[in-house]
Design brief:
five-stranded parallel beta sheet; alpha/beta; 18 helices; globular
Length: about 550
């Protein structure tokens, strides 16, 4: 069995160091205006330090960066892949230690119980977050373990000391930021860190949403590297608009709404790990009967991903009669890739603006369906299911509105008129369905690998009814094994009843009808099992 190569190993130790006070000038816009927490006495008192120790700490200290930057791509923090490492030569740091990070302009240390511990190493993705915690004097609890390198911190939680200095949404915000940073691939040494998931018993980062200006400002200050560079700059501009007193309320409302949509999407690296082809085949066999050519094409795609670690240049276009399982194929591919999926029904699209959004100059402006699909999925890597691509129809003679999908399908980035920003699409795998490919424009067709799906043969329909449709309906209706039995001859009668109908949707409706009749007999006639033969099927369905 083929397994994904691990990407969680520690890479090289960076030789460049970042001090907490470093911050590019362009990123300082939109800062929170919180007090700097540079008073060391107050800092030490918050950490539970006695007055004598606070007085000693108040003596001027040289401005020193004590740590080196560690580049790693671990998606979970543990002692082997810590967020940071502290000097613990005296053994004073315990499993849980409360304190706060020294304010910028001083030695980079963690202050606790009247003592200080130098920071030795920091995961590059978390440099900004540590600077943010230090600048704002946020009291935290570190969870860690002694290692040969020092005290390896694998969890940081905010604690309430009663001082009133709290992050947005309390510890839930901090866990959300840590989660986003862990999900992000370590940046190059010329840039600053990025993010992903950590679960906390008290605050679940998965439920956190950035909606207020304060929470969005805090996020950009301490986790901006979790965003692509162009979105980071875009977010700063829109944050300035949302806070400005020189623009209209409508402009501010639109800017805040756009920010909330963009920042709540988890922007992930488009690297894809290896996928087990045997597991992929099992999933396809579970979901689909027959369709050997379709399954072969999907397995070929999986092998291609394993070789390149990127998605194919072309999406899939599944063409066939209604009810032949086209959408089911798309769901199976999403399951194989381990990605969320979102769908768009093109039969309801009559204007390109519905896809690309409307300009913010209008009071009723809103983002387009594609941007809303990203927001619904919650992350940038997803399977984008485009249903009924051949049904998109313009109300005038301007051409098919589906042509607005071209930039999305080219994987060069998609621009929404409302967002006014190019959305990265390298992690988007489009799968479209259609009944008649002759109604799809040639430019669109060239962006897909087209797979024709013929209608099922009568024998295939019978097997699908017995193996898939009927068992699924019986489970849904709560019928136990043996309570509703359909013989081979009865199944053949069902297929003959719907021989003029394409696909297998009518077969599932027939299974529902038979199961409901069996349940009725069990409940009213006190029978333990109902067996349907050909005559019984014709009597119930006729």
């Amino acid at each position: 069995m083929q397994t994904a190569p691990t990407r969680l190993k520690r890479t090289e130790m960076a030789t460049k160091v970042f001090s907490f006070e470093e911050e590019p000038a362009e990123e300082k816009a939109g800062s929170t205006g919180r007090t700097q927490g540079s008073d060391v006495s107050a800092e030490k008192q918050e950490a539970g330090v006695d007055a004598a120790a606070a007085d000693r700490a108040a003596e001027p200290l040289p401005e020193v960066c004590t740590y080196t930057v560690l580049r790693q791509d671990a998606e979970e923090a543990d002692p082997a892949h810590p967020l940071l490492i502290l000097d613990n030569a005296d053994g004073k740091l315990k499993h849980h230690t409360d304190g706060l990070f020294a304010a910028p302009g001083r030695r980079t240390q963690f202050c606790f119980r009247g003592m200080r511990a130098d920071i030795r190493q920091v995961d590059q993705r978390f440099v900004e977050l540590l600077r943010w915690l230090a600048t704002n004097g946020i009291s935290v609890r570190l969870s860690g373990q002694d290692t040969p390198d020092g005290y390896a911190v694998y969890k940081i939680c905010e604690i309430d000391t009663g001082s009133g200095t709290k992050l947005s949404a309390e510890d839930g915000f901090l866990q959300y930021v840590i989660s986003r940073l862990l999900e992000t691939k370590a940046p190059e040494l010329s840039s600053q860190g990025a993010g992903a998931p950590e679960e906390d018993e008290e605050a679940d980062s998965d439920e956190m949403k950035l909606t207020s200006l304060q929470s969005m400002t805090d996020f950009l200050d301490c986790a901006r590297s979790a965003l692509p560079a162009n979105i980071r700059k875009w977010a700063r501009r829109n944050l300035a608009i949302a806070k400005s007193s020189d623009v209209s309320q409508e402009e501010k409302r639109h800017a805040q709404h756009a920010l909330s949509l963009m920042l709540n999407i988890r922007w992930k690296d488009s690297y894809f790990g290896a996928i087990d082809p045997d597991r992929a085949r099992r999933i396809l066999d579970e979901e689909l009967y027959g369709m050997e050519k379709v399954k072969q094409r999907i397995i070929e795609t999986i092998i291609q991903i394993n070789r390149t670690h990127t998605l194919p240049a072309y999406g899939l276009l599944l063409v066939g009669p209604a009810g032949t399982g086209k959408s089911q194929i798309a769901y199976a591919v999403a399951r194989i890739l381990g990605l969320p999926w979102t769908s768009l029904d093109m039969s309801s699209i009559h204007d390109p603006e519905q896809l690309t959004g409307s300009s913010r100059v209008y009071s009723n402006a809103k983002p387009g369906s594609i941007m809303e699909a990203f927001s619904l999925a919650g992350e940038s890597n997803l399977v984008f299911i485009i249903n009924e691509l051949d049904k998109a129809d313009s109300k005038d003679s301007t051409g098919s509105p589906a042509d607005a999908l071209l930039t999305l399908l080219d994987n060069l980035g998609f621009t929404d008129n409302y967002m006014e920003c190019t959305i990265p699409t390298a992690g988007v795998y489009p799968i479209a369905t259609a009944n008649d490919k002759s109604r799809i424009s040639e430019p669109l067709l060239t962006r897909f690998a087209v797979i024709d799906i013929p209608d099922y043969t009568p024998e295939e329909k019978k097997q699908i009814f017995l193996r898939y449709s009927l068992p699924r309906v019986l489970r849904r209706m709560g019928l136990r094994d043996g309570e509703c039995v359909v013989t081979e001859e009865a199944a053949q009668a069902v297929v003959e009843e719907y021989r003029d109908m394409p696909g297998v949707r009518d077969l599932e409706q027939a299974a529902e009808h038979l199961a409901a009749n069996a349940l009725y007999q069990i409940e009213t006639a006190s029978v333990r099992s109902v067996v349907f033969d050909r005559d019984a099927v014709q009597r119930v369905l006729g």
